[in-house]
């Protein structure tokens, strides 16, 4: 009974601070705007003009190739940039330490922050799904268990990396610049914004190990009912192991400040 009460108390604490963090995030118009603006700009200027065109040698529309990467970009934007920047700002203002004095353990606080960020991610992704679905329609593969599982896996990977970046012992401005660099290198190197087929062979070889490209290629393949990328399964497994390793390092750093 005592254990049950303790579990219930912890759940209540996390719920209270989750709502608090979510309200704080929603009061940050810049975060809300950029989480939606970037994928919408890509959709408007690249997706709409070529949406109904058929990809050569396939029966797949351009928008169907683009849709999984649009949703993935929303998650990457918020979890690779938004999450670490938010964590860094909390630490720079020592807000996390003040919260823990209530008391609120670092683990509970971290769960609340990440859950709030995930809520914003789901809301932003749902808007993109709604817009594309209304304008062009969605393929039946959107409800495929494998497609859903891959999207969840991508979010898990991004959370691990984003949490690690946010707990680095660096100033908020440095983390801001670092996360922007990480996001844009991974994003443009994934081929989501522009084809990378014309790049030199050595660069393309390196980009085959771009984690975002690995996930995007798998998502596009499943959504368009195309052949799964060669080696995609074990590459995805490696990215998850890597993210778990980074998350463990981040959690160690996070607990050192408790």
TrEMBL record:
Organism for this UniProt entry: Actinomyces graevenitzii C83
Cellular component GO terms held in the UniProt record: ATP-binding cassette (ABC) transporter complex
InterPro entries linked to this entry: ABC2_TM (IPR013525), ABC_2_transport (IPR000412), Nod_factor_ABC_transporter (IPR051784)
Membrane topology, from the record: Multi-pass membrane protein
Taxonomy, superkingdom: Bacteria
Protein name per Swiss-Prot or TrEMBL: ABC-2 type transporter transmembrane domain-containing protein
Domain ABC-2 type transporter transmembrane positions: 14-222
Chief location bin: membrane
GO biological process, alphabetically ordered: response to antibiotic
Keywords: Antibiotic resistance, Membrane, Transmembrane, Transmembrane helix
A GO term, aspect molecular function: ABC-type transporter activity
Subcellular location: Membrane
UniProt entry tagged with the keyword Membrane: yes
Membrane-spanning segments: 21-46, 66-88, 109-134, 146-165, 177-196, 236-254
């Amino acid at each position: 009974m005592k254990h049950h009460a303790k579990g219930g108390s912890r759940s209540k604490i996390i719920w209270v601070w989750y709502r608090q963090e979510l309200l704080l995030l929603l009061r940050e118009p810049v975060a809300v705007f950029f989480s939606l603006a970037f994928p919408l700009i890509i959709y408007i200027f690249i997706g709409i003009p070529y949406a109904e065109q058929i990809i050569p040698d396939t029966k797949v529309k351009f928008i169907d190739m683009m849709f999984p990467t649009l949703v993935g970009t929303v998650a990457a934007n918020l979890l690779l940039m938004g999450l670490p920047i938010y964590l860094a700002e909390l630490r720079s203002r020592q807000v996390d330490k003040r919260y823990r004095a209530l008391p609120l353990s670092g683990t509970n606080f971290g769960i609340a922050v990440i859950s709030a960020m995930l809520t914003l991610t789901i809301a932003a992704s749902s808007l993109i799904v709604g817009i594309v679905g209304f304008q062009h329609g969605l393929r039946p593969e959107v409800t495929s268990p494998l497609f859903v599982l891959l999207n969840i896996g991508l979010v898990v990977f991004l959370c691990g990396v984003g949490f690690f970046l946010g707990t680095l012992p660096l100033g908020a401005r440095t983390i801001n610049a670092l996360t922007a660099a990480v996001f844009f290198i991974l994003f443009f190197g994934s081929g989501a914004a522009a084809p990378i087929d014309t790049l030199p062979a050595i660069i393309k070889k390196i980009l085959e190990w771009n984690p975002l490209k690995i996930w995007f290629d798998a998502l596009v393949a499943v959504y368009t009912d195309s052949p799964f990328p060669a080696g995609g399964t074990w590459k995805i497994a490696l990215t998850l192991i890597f993210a778990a390793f980074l998350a463990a390092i981040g959690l160690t750093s996070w607990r050192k400040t408790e």
